[in-house]
Amino acid sequence: MKKLHMVIFLVILFCSTLGCQDKEVMAELEEFKAKAEIEEQNKELILHLFDELDKKNYGIFKELSSPDAKLYAAGSFEPITIEEILPVIPMWYEAFPDYAHSVKDVIAKGDKVAVRCTYSGTHEGEFMGIPATGNTMEYGGLGIFQIKKGKIVRGWFMEDMLWLMMQLGMELKPKEGEK
């Protein structure tokens, strides 16, 4: 009889141990699913941003960003604000009326979303002092966005501006040496 009680006790102990482990596993699984859901929402937010910009809804950047968001462009360590970027966005679409983003990759990890894009358009208006050339252009870029509570709070951008300028007829030449 003692053996039977001991076996029953061990079975109960074994089952309760497994039950506790299942609860821990389930909690981890739920946490993983919640994180994956937020990462997916963050990716959708950034895809929505690019889609709306290409529809010339320039205000979308402000709508999807925190009021104190900071943006960093290649070559600058000083951030710019949403208010400072808003007038710049239409400039691109005025110079390139068919300007479009073609998203190639979107990767989310935690509160950050990385995007690799190809930008394209036809140069039909003045751009950075360069008169319209009629040239089509295509160049690549990367962006990393940090998102908190469904709003963009930081953005880092790297775009191949040299290749863009070369397609618009600009030439890169070395400085002439001093004589």
Characteristic terms for this protein:
alpha+beta; Nuclear Transport Factor 2, Chain: A; 5 helices; 6 strands
Would you write up a description of this structure?
The protein is an alpha+beta fold and 179 residues long. The protein has a single domain, classed as Nuclear Transport Factor 2, Chain: A, CATH 3.10.450.50. Helix content is 42%, strand content 30%. It has five helices and six strands. A hairpin with a 2-residue loop joins strand 5 and strand 6. The longest helix is centred in the first third of the chain and has 53 residues.
Q: What is the averaged pLDDT score?
A: 87
Distance from first to last alpha carbon: 108 Å
CATH first level: Alpha Beta
How many beta-strand segments? 6
Strand content: 25-35%
State the helicity in percent bands.
40-55%
Q: Report the CATH topology name.
A: Nuclear Transport Factor 2, Chain: A
The assigned CATH architecture is: Roll
Strand order of the largest sheet: 2-1-6-5-4-3
- Cα Rg: 26 Å
